[in-house]
Amino acid sequence: MKRFVLLAMLAMTWWCVPAFGAESIRILRNGEEVRLSQGILRQDGTLMMSIQDLAELTESELRQDGSVTAFGYRLKEGPVVLENEQTATLVEDVVLYDHLGRKIPIAGKVLRKDGEIYLPARTIANALGYTVKWSRMDGAETFSVERPVMPRVTLDVVYDKEEQRVTGTIWNREPQIFDYGDDFLVERMTAEGWERMREAEPKYIDGIGYSMSGLWEGLLDGKWTYSRRLYCALPAGKYRIGIPFFFRYEGTMSEESLRKYLWETHGVYTMEDMKKLLQEDIAEYQKGKTPDDLWKLWSSLEIIYSTQWGNMAFYFAGADSKPEYSTSTYYVLYGEFEVE
After folding, report:
1. pTM of the entire structure?
2. How far is CA 68 from CA 47, 65, 78, 113, 212, in A?
3. What average pLDDT does range 100-115 have in this prediction?
4. Domains of the chain, each with CATH number or no CATH
């Protein structure tokens, strides 16, 4: 009888405290399995990972300075690089700041065990911009993360040695319209990697030049030509030019603010109405193809496709405020070429 009572008390204790036992869960990053050094713990139903394992899972460099812990990485996919770092910063185990600088209360959710610090895996991955999914099938659990999708934009470059000119064809495979810099970077491949050649560039490289159209079947082909003279001749070698580009972003706003903005600019109240208006604008453009029709169409496209990528460059400061514009450059599009 005493043994039964003791077992019952132990069972009650087990149900009253968080479960810290290591979990056997399959971990995926972008569809590929990742092996963790510490494994996963579970606290009140939340999956917890050590700081080191979270850095490994999110491909982040881990930085610690006193009570501040920061995860950070740069995005790169093909010829496109996200220049500003995606970061998640934990301050004194209390507040987490995500990659957009938003504050996420996290007090009481940090676990310390055997000299290791464990954090909520989903919260950290989400704060870095990852998409997180959890599933259970036939008793087996899977925790997967996927990096933010990068814009599908490419650049083909041809170099004319006699004219000292680079001519590039930009192919934008997104419906999003991007603005890009009038100026450019020039880099040469060396034994230590890509080395910048400032003498071949303009003095200032952050000027905003043109808008590259998006890809719309039967309407816009997403093709744009870029041609610029270099400021000095290039010796034989492998090179690349980098064109900075950015986009307009509709920031998070209240429903009231969104309705007001849509009504003032397009005479509709909801995004569903905005999509219907877009179809009307497409039909009008295909009939007339006048500059006014094209401007109306581009304006509608911007509203619908301006929240697809990265950090805010176009935002609302409040429900009753007018939109404010920023021309911060976030991406660089690279195109490689060789000089014989």
Report:
1. 0.70
2. 22, 5, 33, 19, 40
3. 87
4. 2-76+86-146 (no CATH), 153-246+332-339 (2.60.40), 255-306 (no CATH)
